[in-house]
Amino acid sequence: MSNELESRFFLNDDEKINNLDDFEIPVEWWSRFYEYAWASKFLNKDDTIIDAGCGIEHPFKHYASNRVKKVYAVDINKEISSCENTDTLEHICAEFADMKDHISEKSDTIFCLSVLEHMYPANIVNALKAFNDMLKPNGKIILTCDYPHLGTDTLMNLVNEAGLIFEG
Predict the structure, then answer these.
(1) CA dihedral defined by 112, 117, 119, 125, rounded to 10 degrees?
(2) Residues facing 150 on adjacent strands
(3) Which residues, including other chains, have CB under 8 Å from residue 28's CB and lie 6 or more apart?
């Protein structure tokens, strides 16, 4: 699969995925069909990744852990600490700004899927800076956001304020 970056809205004729391994994506999560299909193109078997704001029930972290070297699943929900870890999947309860206190290695890719729109703008900037600090050189941050909850102009301004640039 190609892993070309393109910053744009998902379209109805984009590639979709209905399930991730054994997990059937609920129809109410309509955007996840597209987000997971797109994000999965950035999973590489030798990579270490972070699934930032992964939630408890969202399956991407599990799907990814079967396709990459290591996944750090980070969320602020304390219940994540009781989730079972494996050789390829480690659950961490932490704020994005504190990830570096829990993860000793840099990541090839950080995935943040439909999370930023739930945060205040200043916290988004801090999160993006924390993500950048956790990346290896030439690493990527893969973002999706629910529009119009987080508008494109606002997101672009926050990305610029964090000192990052969009690719594609």
Answers:
(1) 70
(2) none
(3) none
Give CA–CA dist 103/143, Å, rounded.
20
Q: How far is CA 76 from CA 80, 91, 162, in A?
A: 8, 11, 21
**pLDDT tens by residue, 15-63:** 999 999 999 999 999 999 999 999 999 999 999 999 999 999 999 999 9
Nearest to 83 by CA among 107, 101, 115, 61: 61
Residue 86 CB contacts under 8 Å (≥ 6 apart), including other chains:
65
pLDDT digits (tens, 9 = 90+) for 116-142: 999 999 999 999 999 999 999 999 999
pTM higher than 0.85 for the full model? yes
